[in-house]
Please model this.
Amino acid sequence: MRLRNAQCISRADITAFPIDDFRSHIVKAVNQGARIAAFFCHDGLLIAVLARDEEGILETISSRANAAYASITPDCPQAHWFEREIYEQSGVKPEGHPNLNPIRSGQSEFFRVDGEEVHEVAVGPVHAGIIEPGHFRFQCHGENVLHLEIALGYQHRGVEAALVGGPDKRAIHLMETLAGDTTIGHATAYAQIIEALSPARLSARAMVVRGIALELERLANHTGDLGALANDVGYLPTGAYCGRVRGDFLNMTALICGSRFGRGLVRPGGAGFDIDASLVDELSDRLDLAFRDLAGAADLLWNSASVMARFENVGTLSLETALKLGIVGPAARACGIERDVRHDFANGVFGFSQIPISTAPSGDAFARAFVRWLEIQRSAAFIREQLEHLPIGSIGSQVHALAPDSFCVSLVEGWRGEICHAALTDSSGRFAQYKIIDPSFHNWFALAMAMRNQQISDFPLCNKSFNLSYCGHDL
Amino acid sequence: MLKEIIARLKQGHQTIDFPGQEPSLPERFRGIPAIDRSKCPQGCRDCVEACPTDAIGHGPNGVRVDLGRCLFCVECVQACPQNAIVYTKNFRMAARQRNDLFTADATITRAKALDEKCRRLFGRSLKLRQVSAGGCNACEQDVNVLNTVVFDLGRFGIQFVASPRHADGLLITGPVTESMRSALKKTYDAVPSPKIVIAVGACAISGGPYAGYPHVHNGADSMLPVDLYIPGCPPHPLTILDGLLGLLGKLPTPFKIPPPPITGD
Model:
């Protein structure tokens, strides 16, 4: 069944295949350029959502799986994290999968390289800085990293399980805290699901307010990342300035809704807070000031030969690997892939006002930093334009009971990349399953690949250049 | 180098004068909520039922909010038929005792400074090890912000260190997931005594939005003695800074009276 972003269909309309055809359909589609946006097991039923970026169309297919089926991963590497999750969550075994270690409930076995002068470095879950917990296991030969294995799950709170039978009064708050730095992105993905299943029609003004919020979130996080990257190579001026300007963007979000992270700003049916006339001027002024300072800080960065020497040719991910892994967001665009939900599956305000896709070709830490700077400029221009042309009207509309026995997929381009939520409702219109795929879910393995044959001392820089979410992955 | 110097001059001085001056907060800032109990209709439970984390309940004198559970969302404000609940701009809400976090009038018994012995040890140099034990990373980010030039935490002698063995205490965020329980315990044990524990955010105080879920332990004090509770979801950086300075006895006295409630729409 082909469907659009945030379109409600009947569960019965999901195309069902015998398992062999299901498998070959996915492999063939991915070989032809589709991506796996979601792949999960509901009550013994495998469901896959394939994203055809160039057509802007999603396709959802299913197959009844017994206790086991032939793993798709050997023919389609981007399935590998999904299949580990399927085995962990449902017990259905993808046979022939190269590594079925759990991704959330504690990994005890690690791949190991043996040999003279080969040594292992284990880091985490408690790291040196103020960051989230995760475990990194490096196999090194001298300074050289032969292999990195990333074990996550320390942030696992059990959100997906808690959503079954919902939505209840906690649901929106769980969405806003899936990844705290992506409050707007995940809340928007959830709101789109509810609005599609309800159905509710969003006002133009609500779309614009949500779009501004999403781009402010991108501005704040990209700015923070540029600063952190500068700090990681010891270039403190840009680090200090970006750290401050990031706060200026967060404070702009707080100006709209009282919360620096946008808590309460996105609500199913619209927005929780309006941008009234006096706020428009204040936001525009602040945006100009913050952007001016940020441009100065970024200019310093790109013109420092010592910084460029550290950014370039570090943590390079080839286009081929990026495509095989099906990665998303700035990390994908930094490999030259034109992939952006705002463009490919435009929803809300992005259907009316498109933001051009920013790419860079080199796939290294520099490209990932530079794509962020390009996107910062696009987002700032977008917000400026939207503030000038705020549509009139209300910001909220009525949300109704959810359609029973339905299925919906919602995509949002969060600042890390594609956020995918998929909901199945039961016969009484409650969530039978609510699947969340944070962009980090696609991208963690790309970090491991980017580290191959790199110096272990470059790990902080590489890690920051991806800046993936632990909590968004762990749920 | 010349470029750096010119940029430095353009960026200017950005550090705020806190605690010297009252900081300016956005108009819609959600600080401690105030409940006008005189407006509560007999038997009304609308706010209690609307609250996603059961932060509102009936105390001995009527409805009250548990700031340790509160997500500072607007559900109760919108549910109240009498518009009796408003958010104030009072961002000073760190407390030493869990029970001090119950309030109805937008004030709490604020954190008292450490005893003299601990103040002598930590007052001029407090090294903290941060442990993220679940949660959503928003608290971590607003703790990290204290290291920016805006707040410049270092000027108060407070610093985050990489090793628990170099630390005087732990700053914990997150509800303590089952998978982080042993790492948190090991980190705590590695900190030399005397040591302090600071719980930042609704998750670390009560489990926050995940309270009661099977994978979490409903906060740091389920396994460690907590010396300072800093509520919020996440707490504003100023709330965290105010709490830390209060604990070290570095706030000017007397405290300024918080401004009257102004938000609530």
In short: Residues 118-151 of chain A form one domain. The two ends of chain A are 28 Å apart (CA to CA).
